[in-house]
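Morning!

This is the sequence you dropped in the shared folder:
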Amino acid sequence: MLISTKIEKLARELIALPSVNPAFLPQNHSEAGEARVADFLAATAAQAGLDVELQEVLPGRSNLLARLTPKGAVRQRILLAPHMDTVGAFSPEQFDPRLRQGRLYGRGACDTKGSIASMLGALMTLGRDHQRPSATEIVFAGLIDEEHAQAGSRALAASGFKADLAIVGEPTRLRVVTAHKGSLWLHLETHGKAAHGSCPHLGRNAVHEMARIVDLLLTEYAEQLQQRRHPLLGCATISVGSIKGGSQPNIVPALCEASLDRRTLPGETLQSVRGEMAALFRRHQLRAVISDQKDCPCAALETSLDLPLVRQFMQAAGQEKPVGVNYFCDASVLAQAGIPSLVFGPGDIAQAHTSDEWIDVKSLAASTDRLLRFFQSLP
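The structure's back. Tokens below.
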């Protein structure tokens, strides 16, 4: 009971510290950035006897690393990796943690300050109880910028950091996730020829070309994707998020643009997706320029159950079969850098980013217990 009370208190303290990703706020906004949370976690972890390091990623924005070193030589390393940033709040009250009927409400409660509290809380409990593993180093990494461009996990990976297993904190309802879809944001442009609206036959309408392409993507192409199925993730998907073209009614538009969200399965790449779309357009005698709307594509995740540490964590979590999720997270970035990665944490993704975001307090305690059980099984 004492541990669960401390974890709830830690979650409350984290919610009360705004850490909205600056991408979602005006410049120099008082709620922007993860610095308040990083400084608080650094002080909390140091007080518990963990070795603390701040890794600057962007100006004023640093990953927080807290290490529990083993009693002897390090033979393996476990990484705990929740993110510290949140999306924006609908009202100031979302930074005032509130407990009602066993639910803790507030921005970031489940995405992912609940994971931060349970992961760091479990690690500090292990240190306080003098239960350090004999040969396993456990590193907590509070990451920045997951909600925007994953700069935190990308910087950690680029630094050469290595681990034998990463457990990425996200609201999975305490299920161990071994696979998630990737996300590609693509930009399309169709080009035509401007003409006076009274003589449309003298022009070439770029909006009409794009309309035909959108219809093709959402019918024939979407049906093709339905045929590609993954045992944990289902099928790949395509969604047209925005379209704009032309300037006024009496000018035949010479340019039209659209943005696409393409959710990928393991094995699909930016190059393969762009290639198959270009081939589809050619078959239908349609022309469009396809470009990447993101600097860093987000690959799909698939981690093998054959890895001993994966099986060991699933056993500690009391789970026989893995699950997959549709959303993307830092696990993919770490996996692409050679760190086998799982996704696990308290809370439900259905509550993430909502105006009344909440987490079940009991799930905080359950997450902590399962992590401790895993830690205690390590050499």
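Headline: The two ends are 27 Å apart (CA to CA).

More detail when I'm at my desk.
O.
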